[in-house]
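TICKET: design request
STATUS: open
ATTACHED STRUCTURE:
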């Protein structure tokens, strides 16, 4: 999901909570990262949904591992998966 300036905080919260299990999944990690960045700007110090609750400090702690994972997977996907070789002459 792509959050935009017309997105609501409820949509951003839903996106974050739907992607909390992002480890090993670059799509979920990117969606969670996007939601956290949105919420850090748009939300007050605490947000909750049902029995889940996050404070601004919790969101800030999630940023570095998410950013590292997303950055690693974006550079990994742009790498060539094969090598180019030539004939070896003896």
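STATUS: resolved
RESOLUTION: sequence designed for all positions
ATTACHED SEQUENCE:
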């Amino acid at each position: 999901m792509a959050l935009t300036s017309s997105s609501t905080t409820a949509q951003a919260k839903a996106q974050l909570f739907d992607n909390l299990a992002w480890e090993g999944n670059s799509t979920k990690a990117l969606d969670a990262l996007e939601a956290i960045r949105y919420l850090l700007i748009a939300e007050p110090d605490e947000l909750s949904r049902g029995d889940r609750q996050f404070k601004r400090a919790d969101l800030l702690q999630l940023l570095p591992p998410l950013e590292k994972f997303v950055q690693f997977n974006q550079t990994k996907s742009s790498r060539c998966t094969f090598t180019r070789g030539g004939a070896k002459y003896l």
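CLOSING REMARK: The chain has a mean pLDDT of 80. The longest strand covers residues 46-49.
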